[in-house]
Amino acid sequence: xxKERIKIISLVGLxxxxxxxxxxxxxxxxxxxxxxxxxxxxxxxxxxxxxxNSSGQQEFDVTTxxxxxxxxxxxxxxxxxxxxxxxxxxxxxxxxxALYNQMQFALQEGIVRGDFVRMAQEVAALGKDAGMQVxxxxxxxxxxxxxxxxxxQLVAVxxxxxEGKFLPSEARAVSKGGST
Length: 180
Prior knowledge:
- By secondary structure, the chain is an alpha/beta fold.
- The chain folds into two domains: 1-40; 44-174, no CATH class.
- 48% of the residues lie in helices and 26% in strands.
- It has helices at residues 2-40, 70-81, 94-113, 116-130, and strands at residues 46-54, 57-64, 86-90, 133-138, 142-149, 152-159, 170-171.
- A four-stranded mixed sheet has the order 1-2-3-7, covered by helices on one side. A three-stranded antiparallel sheet has the order 4-5-6, with helices on both faces.
- The longest helix has 39 residues, at 2-40.
- The termini are far apart.
């Protein structure tokens, strides 16, 4: 009799646990994601957002279009994302990607040495030579860079202190999916 009671109690416990877990997943999927989407639509330059799993880690993916003030957009998204790292998905061209890769030397040297004036001058010169509009700003934690040419824009946020709050941005076509 006691073995049967233990089996019944265990079965009921597993059933309750399964229901609670299912309810939590449904809550996250329907209410939390819908709330994030609704709030993100009020941020200028943000097309869509989604929480996705990438290599076993959750991240906050943000699809952008014509971001005018990346530092302000990033601050608003940081509040929404909480502790999740943010990855921007933009509509860059191969030429913008190549230019950004060239700028990495100046950007990383500026971060390491703290010579931000020289970094800004080198980045501006590279952008001018390539015929792209460069918008480079910074605060005490991040460096914000947009490269704009026509309707295409590369968006990048570089973490100055290695906190991992912002992940490397990617082109939209490389998106891992998720709820947007």
